[in-house]
Amino acid sequence: MPRTKVSKSTKRFREASSCEEKLREFEASFDGYMHALEMKAKSQIESIEEKFYMLLMRTDSSVLNLRMGDVLALNLKTLEDCKKYSNTLAASSTSGTKQGSNKQLNPNDEEDSTNSGSAIGVSTSILTAYSQSSLKQQQQQQQRGRTPGPLSSARARRPRRSRSVCDEIHASAIKSTTSSSSIMDTRISRSKMRTPTASRSKAFSADRSSQICGQQFPSSTSVQSPAAAFLRWPKPGEVVLSKCGSPVVAHVMPDKYANVNIPTKNGIFSLRPKKLEELKTDIIEAIDSDTLNQIRTLHDNLNLIMKMADGSLPK
Amino acid sequence: MDYSKFGNMMERNRIESFKKWPFDDKKACSVKKMAEAGFYWSGNEREPDTVTCFVCNKTLDGWEPTDDPWKEHAKHAPQCNFVKYGRKEADLTVQEFINVFSVAVKARMDKHFNKTLEDFRKCAEKEKEKLLLGK
Ligand SMILES: [Zn+2]
């Protein structure tokens, strides 16, 4: 009985192509896994970046500007010491700190486990350890800020985050001016992004709304930039001049921090990532209903983000 | 405070890391000066004069008694964030220290992730070879 002859070359071709297919499949799944790993690594690095960013954000600038040498000279013995001080500090200061857990991991674990396949998992714990370490560091530094003595002079010298000549210029601007002192007093408590001459402007300016925002942020309760501030966008053709160091780009909002900017009749109401002490009711009158709806949506979005964050980030 | 858990992130631990160092405290590259400039000991019995920066991970050996650790660090790793500040730990502000700390942590993570990916790639290559041989 004859049968269809399969030529040797065809057979070989089939075998070769099936092998090629396997290889292609293999490479495709390899690429997939590789990509997933890379993404995971990237997101973990981003998350630690975020943590450091928040650490800097939440730490009072008077603490941030202390010398490490002074901080270390305190020679805090135990974590409990740091906590005690950080708690008393939290009670007296507006800037609270998040307490890390007491789990103590050795950062040097890293070296011991590089040969295992679970490197990513391991480095997560390293991250946790490091971020906890830095929180401890922060607590320690806060104590430093509270201790009287030679340190308090350093603290008094540098009450603000900004280390530019800004403060001095502000101070001299306040001193030299002869205009209404009540307006000038509130200036100290407002954003340092403000140009010192703004209140002299004839044009309608956010400064006029000081009756809305002025008393909200008495300078005695906050040496840093306030939780919220009124800003205004420059008008067409208006030159924006920074008197506090380097030139500013007009359309970049102040700080690299997360903030919420609400357009109102009186200018831009800018909320900073800090606790707002109190809010005058006339702020609502200055916001129209469209904007209010937008804020509502923003509020929902923020809640969503926080829910996600609380669900996935370790406490 | 138990500083040991901070590893070579802290100057005092970098000083402790030097198990064997050919230069005494009077030399420009004494242990103290090396640690101040960000280096911890990464040598061994055979090559005792090997150090690594805790931020940029640059490893340097072949030190001479007159070498200035800061200058050598800047020459070989000008991109290093610690060298850019150019001040020892005690003279950094808390903010600057946190910045350096975060860069060092990220560098470690990067190194770690890259090693993981490299291991995975090698493992895949081996499997691929098996596949080709055992067709
Ligand atoms: Zn370096």
Automatic annotation (TrEMBL), chain A:
Annotated Borealin C-terminal domain ranges read 187-308
**Positions of the region Disordered?**
89-118, 131-218
Q: Where is the composition biased (Low complexity)?
A: 172-186
Q: Which InterPro entries match?
A: Borealin_C
> Where does the source fall among the domains of life?
Eukaryota
What spans are recorded as compositionally biased (Polar residues)? 89-107, 194-218
**What is the protein named?**
(Mediterranean fruit fly) hypothetical protein
Source organism: Ceratitis capitata (Mediterranean fruit fly)
From TrEMBL, chain B:
GO MF entries: metal ion binding
Going by the UniProt record, its keywords in alphabetical order are: Cell cycle, Cell division, Centromere, Chromosome partition, Cytoplasm, Cytoskeleton, Metal-binding, Mitosis, Nucleus, Phosphoprotein, Ubl conjugation, Zinc
- Write out the annotated subcellular location: Chromosome, Centromere; Cytoplasm, Cytoskeleton, Spindle; Nucleus
- What's the family? Belongs to the IAP family.
Report the record's Gene Ontology biological process terms: cell division; chromosome segregation
- Its name, as the record gives it, is (Mediterranean fruit fly) hypothetical protein
- Please indicate if the UniProt record lists Membrane as a keyword: no
UniProt keyword Ubl conjugation present: yes
Q: Which GO terms describe its cellular component?
A: chromosome, centromeric region; nucleus; spindle
The main place the protein resides is nucleus
